[in-house]
């Protein structure tokens, strides 16, 4: 889970780091999992949530997939979702032989340059 602390103030930097360490740690991940069902970002949360997972085995499935998880790329800015969808659409067009790779590259270049900030 990438995070950036931008303040120059030492006290605020320390507080921000404490918050990040808590939020990504086992105790901080537990309420996230309990309220969303998402996979925890910290394997230690599996132990903290062992009772919940015992009573709700379907929720444990995501936690057992942690070894398959990878970073999630997101385009920057408010058009990130639109850019991602354009990539999916162009890949589908190439896969369905409706667009060649040169056309796909040109289309993506034009669309992304227009949407990225």
Task: Walk me through the structure.
The model has no long low-confidence stretch (mean pLDDT 92). The protein has helices at 10-24, 26-36, 44-48, 50-55, 57-63, 80-95, 101-115. The longest helix has 16 residues, at 80-95. The radius of gyration is 20 Å and the shape is flat. The protein is mostly helical and 117 residues long. It folds into 2 domains: 10-68, no CATH class; 80-115. The chain has 7 helices and no strands. 64% of the residues lie in helices and 0% in strands.
Features:
mainly alpha; 64% helix; 117 residues; 2 domains; 0% strand; flat; single chain
User: What is the N-to-C succession of helices and strands?
Assistant: HHHHHHH
Helix content: 55-70%
Count up the helices. Answer: 7
How does the major sheet shape up?
none
Beta-strand content estimate: under 5%
How does the overall form come out from the CA principal axes? flat
Structural class: mainly alpha
Stretches where pLDDT falls below 50 for ≥5 residues? none
Q: Into how many domains do the coordinates divide?
A: 2
In round numbers, the mean pLDDT is: 92
Distance between the termini: 23 Å
Please provide the count of β strands. Answer: 0
Question: Radius of gyration over alpha carbons?
Answer: 20 Å
């Amino acid at each position: 889970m990438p995070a950036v602390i931008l303040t120059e103030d030492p006290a605020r930097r320390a507080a921000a780091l404490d918050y990040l360490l808590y939020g990504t740690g086992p105790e901080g991940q537990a309420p996230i999992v309990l309220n969303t069902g998402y996979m925890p970002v910290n394997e230690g949360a599996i132990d903290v949530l062992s009772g919940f997972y015992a009573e709700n085995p379907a929720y444990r499935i995501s936690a057992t997939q942690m070894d398959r998880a990878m970073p999630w790329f997101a385009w920057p800015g408010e058009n990130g979702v639109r850019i991602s969808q354009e990539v999916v659409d162009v890949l589908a067009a190439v896969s369905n032989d409706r667009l060649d790779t040169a056309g796909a590259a040109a289309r993506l270049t034009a669309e992304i340059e227009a949407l990225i900030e």
